[in-house]
Design a protein that fits this description.
This protein is mainly alpha-helical and 98 residues long. It has a domain at 1-49. 65% of the residues lie in helices and 0% in strands. It contains four helices and no strands. The chain has helices spanning 2-48, 52-56, 75-82, 86-89. The longest helix has 47 residues, at 2-48.
């Protein structure tokens, strides 16, 4: 019986050591991951910095809307337009012939 108890104690100690080791590896892995993320962010910031060519060179021009075509309005914006009180569209002092 004492032999079984000693075996259980050894097993518990082994499991505790394994748990401690895995926690330490997890912390190291998280630190490595964060370091890699910061490195990627810094690289992307460097790539997004304007160069001499884009500063004075070409301007970005928006695509023109063709006659008869409306620009795309989101459903939220159209709901706001529909639910706006008439007073905003017809201010006092301005009469409309309806």
């Amino acid at each position: 019986m004492e032999r079984r108890l000693m075996a259980k104690i050894e097993r518990v100690k082994t499991l505790e050591v394994a748990l401690r080791d895995s926690k330490e590896r997890g912390v190291e892995e998280r630190q490595r991951y964060q370091k890699e993320i910061e490195q990627i962010k810094s690289w992307s910031r460097l790539r997004k910095q304007p160069t001499q060519k884009t500063l004075g060179g070409s301007a970005h021009i928006a695509k023109p809307i063709r006659p008869g075509h409306r620009g795309q309005i989101s459903s939220e914006a159209s709901a706001v337009i529909r639910n706006t009180p008439e007073k905003l569209y017809n201010p006092p002092g301005i009469r409309r012939n309806v």
